[in-house]
Protein: Tryptophan synthase beta subunit-like PLP-dependent enzyme
Amino acid sequence: MTRSRRSDIPQIFSSFPQLDLSLLLQHAPPIERLAKLEKACHSGLDDTRLFVYREDLASTFNPGGNKLRKLEYALPLAFRKGGRPTSIVAVGGLQSNCCRQTAQVAASLGIRCYLVLDELDYDDHSDARHFGNLQLMRLLGAEIIFASSEHDADRQKSLGSSFSNSADKLVKDLRRQGERVLFIPTGASDMPGSGLGYARFVFDLLQQEEQMHLPGSGRFDFLAIACASGSTLAGIIAGFRLAREVGWIDEEPRIVGVETFCDPVEEQRRHVLSIARDTAGMLGLGEDAIGLEDVVIDGRWTGGKYGHCDHATQTTIQLVAQSEGLILDPVYNGKSMTAVLEGVREGELYGNVLLINTGGQSVMSAYPGVERCRKDSRA
Structure:
């Protein structure tokens, strides 16, 4: 019997420090075929199959999400450099998944957590200020600081820069009080090691892929993933490049990031490239192992504003829920699934197409009315 090429995870991942807390389950989450959705979207392409990677089910925490894979490596690297903190300060939007997951980890580690949230990300503040992730952040004991962007002179387009003054002041005040503070930027992406978790994820995915005996090419031809702060996409790009270098694969899938931040696509591509190259360097790959041509981002499905649930996103959420019983969030995965469905309909995506569901369903109660979208056969 021939031994699989995909049996041994590269040893380099074991060289990084680890938390004394398990953030992920010991087994990989499921990959599910979306056969009813294939019929519902009327693609007319018999050779196209839709799958979803249930990354929302990957964690020991419930609800989970993709930021936990980032924190799995980024936190212990930060602890090794600056010591175990007594306080964590994180920034994000009013319904930030990263801030909610940071609060979960901080509570489990017994570390005080402060969350600086931009309160002007949503058109209607009333429900967003009381429900969804914000309710969970409070339940987890995090101290919430609202930083209205209208009071900050350095407001820029990217989420996170709008309240940098408030976050900086908080960090300095805590340090003056003798606290050892760890700062977590938007999405935990601009931290050393933020892409390592999703580079490691690639090897779990490839092992699962091999066991599925997929038709056609025998592998996933396209991967789609929501892209915001960038390190999830960057880590996946770096991970597939490493997989090719170590002989796990001969050909990489086409990886498509679906923009949700509303940043200019070329600017976002360069940002993702920077993180991907940093990740590749930590994995022992050369500086030129990844180029800008490897970073593909589709900026057509943002809905016009970060966090805004437009009609196309609502329709997709309703279609997926009623055809598959799968709940997608309106900030990230509703938009990335819209990109997948339209890409299939237009012939841009074909073969075995995999959407990575990064979680975030915990925001749903902050979006009243999303379930009342007009029924439509198109997303």
